[in-house]
Predict the structure.
Amino acid sequence: MTADQAKLLLGPGPSNAHPQVLEAMSAPLIGHMDPEFLEVMADIKSMLQNAFQTENHLTFAVSAPGSAGMETCLVNLLEPGDEALICVHGVFGNRMSDIVERCGAKLIRVDAPWGKAIDPEQVKQALEQHQPKLVAIVHAETSTGVLQPMAEISKLTKDAGALLVVDAVTSFCGTELRVDEWGIDAVYSGSQKCLSAPPGLSPVSFSERAVTTILKRNSKVQSWFLDLSLVSNYWQGAKRAYHHTAPVSSMFALKQALQLVMEEGLENRYARHWEAHQLLKAGLEDLGFEFLVEEGFRLPMLNAIKLPSHINDQEVRSKLLNHYRIEIGAGLGDFAGKVWRIGLMGENARPQAVDQLLSALKEIV
Amino acid sequence: MTADQAKLLLGPGPSNAHPQVLEAMSAPLIGHMDPEFLEVMADIKSMLQNAFQTENHLTFAVSAPGSAGMETCLVNLLEPGDEALICVHGVFGNRMSDIVERCGAKLIRVDAPWGKAIDPEQVKQALEQHQPKLVAIVHAETSTGVLQPMAEISKLTKDAGALLVVDAVTSFCGTELRVDEWGIDAVYSGSQKCLSAPPGLSPVSFSERAVTTILKRNSKVQSWFLDLSLVSNYWQGAKRAYHHTAPVSSMFALKQALQLVMEEGLENRYARHWEAHQLLKAGLEDLGFEFLVEEGFRLPMLNAIKLPSHINDQEVRSKLLNHYRIEIGAGLGDFAGKVWRIGLMGENARPQAVDQLLSALKEIV
């Protein structure tokens, strides 16, 4: 391995971008109000609709990373005094709870132990006691590797008349995500995971019901930058109004990454992620590693592995990074020092990447 | 001119990026917690300190465009009930006022007619009647082309015990900006103007006094994404804490763009912007155009030109863009259809760019 060789990014994101994506990003700049750029935005919108499996008009990319997408969803839908039911089973549910409180909304929490999915029964009970404006849940908890089943919780939320907000940062373009069919009212993602574009953008989509809720607000959204009543005038409508200077180069990269997804096909891409996960699972189990999450609830693109006591977390990860040029992710929050998070996302959900990691691990541990 | 040739971006930004900057951006990705990336962040910080002429520890780039930098400054420094004096002489002062209200702070406005600078006497009078926590002003009003003199207003602000917040989005790296010497407590900029990096990042810097103010807050910052008590743990300190996934590629580009600024030297760069402006001024006056702003208050990098009644705004700008592949900026807000905004920023503050525009204009009008 030489220092010039690109690192293999098998952490929780960013994943490696396809050479065509990097090339697209280095194209000469154009203006953010140039009709040529407005076409790029239109292409991005229509491919995002496809990738999210939605017909939502308000589908675009927030000009900032996934956590700004999370904030966009919550600050636009919540007003002071509103109730929000947040399902917490890892770092990102915690983050949503924090933002809810910053909105001046009343937080109702449903917690599951880290590494488990949220039990729909808990949501049911909470909805019997409260009438929240929205229920928010992380579809793919990047801090624990849990894939949250959505069907029951979606039904409960709809029956309670609440809006459903979903964090799909890590699941988007890597496993099944059906925004319309699943009744999701607001969803946010990131560019740098299974989409394999550089980090910095957050694809989002809002149902008509969510848009109506936003239009009926009594108070201004607390963030000017994320205020959808303003941002949407730049992303849609006949007369595009300047809001902020869009990150033009990053949008070029996003467009190219989405084109690669469209060429591959969503189902093929999901299958590729699943197969890479199976390969990694077999190899890790041969090496004696155990998964944190129960089978059936595991994210294919983010594999949380229990760290055996004889392995020095920091030392092995440093060796992987510096000697083998492979990044894997450390544990986050409660799991710091206790788990590894191995990402097989987008371009890296391939047998070569799995083999490269497994042979390095065999040499080290 | 062929369709393949890069457009010449002489609007209000983005400006054209140097080929080395575009190349840096297309380098293979690395992780946002990789020690190699933390070094990139350290390099960016130290070059930003130089470019801002400051020793402020809390100097970094917000992972979103300039308007998020504006919001970062205001939401961190203001709490509900605080008073803020905002100087408004164009679109961006208006935007600051809007954000102040979204913070739940009390807005005190000092207005100047668009195209004029703020008169320090107005600020003086306002400070005799109010005791605001901060005074905010736009150094380079991109909507009007006005360069705001800072010395008197800075002194008045300090004497009143208020914090000074400055919008340097368009002035940064293009004309004199001395953060420490001018007593600026919070400053924000953009990557895509005189720095000639792609849009999407906002360099910011905060004085010790600003940091102390933030540490003493009684309430949480309303934005999780922009909360400096969290972001600063990622950008500084021995133990870097994950906050959000930084836009790695855009940071590569920012670093390279800052290196080009350092190689050229700030004074040389300011002089280059000034000379390009002089050349443009002479040429435009030959063609019969008049400047909107009084001499002595003109921004060298953003030239606001009155539109004679015989010129069709939309038609000429479209022709410039489509036939000559030159972008210039339309009027914004009150000035829509009445002025053009010609940017000579960063890489484009050069005689060739001026000549290219002047000869195109000669042919058209």
Notes: The CA atoms of residues 316 and 334 of chain B lie 20 Å apart. Chain B touches chain A through 60 residues (CB under 8 Å). Chain B has a mean pLDDT of 96. The first strand of chain B starts at residue 8 and ends at 10.
